[in-house]
Amino acid sequence: MSNIKMQKFEKVFNKFTSSKKINEGILLIESTNEDFSFSKGYGGKELNSPLLMASITKLFTTACILILVEQGKLSLDEKISKYFEVETLNGLHVYKGKDYSFELTISDLLFQTSGLPDVYEEGKDSVKERVIKEDFYITFSEMIAWVKKLSPHFAPRGKGKAYYADINFDILGEIIEAESQLTLSNAYKKYIIEPLGLVNTYLPDSENDDIPQVYYMNQLLHRPKFVISSRASGGCVTTAYELMIFVKAFFGGRLFNKTILNRISIYNKLQASMGPIYYGGGYMQIPLNGWVTLFMGKGELVGHSGSTGSFAFYYPIKDLFFVGDINQMADAALPIRLSMQLAMAAD
């Protein structure tokens, strides 16, 4: 790939980081076989600087689920009621007077087609509003209780319907622990971190672990208690260098048989607040030929972004991976916009 492409990527990144919203950032772009590699840091952020994965952690959770499916320990069609006490699930999903709580499957959670509400964004006292003001722990049972106070958006598996909600992956994390007989942090180690030889990637278990600070506008927030509570839906820490190793492995068949990707490459458009994003089996899909790009883009991005500015996407049409972080939780759309513009610059 020519120097012209590198200049285009640099121009896009420079334009993004020149925004008053961005205080630091890191970008790494590589092809599968690394015959192309480009990186650029901003504000002191480097390839080995720790970054909060936030919702990219969902790819770790997805990988563990798919590995357990491959081992015959789980089925995507399995009902989640197998893993929980009746009182935990009772009243979790009541839509138009009917209780669907015991009908929910692993697939419903993985594809974000359960219809469950998202306590992070929804409600008068949303988790997001609270975490901006203070640090706090929230247990799984407290999260479930919080979800029960909100209304689901549709019955599970409504045709063409998907709604992004962290609780779907929080529940998957509990299922991974039950089926693997490991804590979630140890499951990530066994199935992902150790096989890939990652040394700076971990799910924090205590406030003594190194947990990166996150910007909200120009205010630096340190939220170790909340990050520890986020677990399967958003608690992992990594570096851009190791995130690249992981996302290549996820889409390249190093963690599980690539053929399973065909089964989970069925996409539904998410709620309007999620912009142009569709969701497949545990990951995002962003078509590049829609109105957002004025119909000038080609192909799609697959992967995940995080609400704190992290991103890890594959652009199959050009065989390029985009990973990094622009550390800003005031606008969750920023890493999506950056990734789309990088893909457009690759054409």
TrEMBL record:
Residue ranges constituting the Beta-lactamase-related domain according to the UniProt record: 49-330
UniProt-recorded name of the protein: Beta-lactamase-related domain-containing protein
Coiled-coil positions: none
Signal peptide: none
Gene3D superfamilies assigned to the protein according to its UniProt record, in alphabetical order: DD-peptidase/beta-lactamase superfamily
A Pfam family assignment: Beta-lactamase
Membrane-spanning parts: none
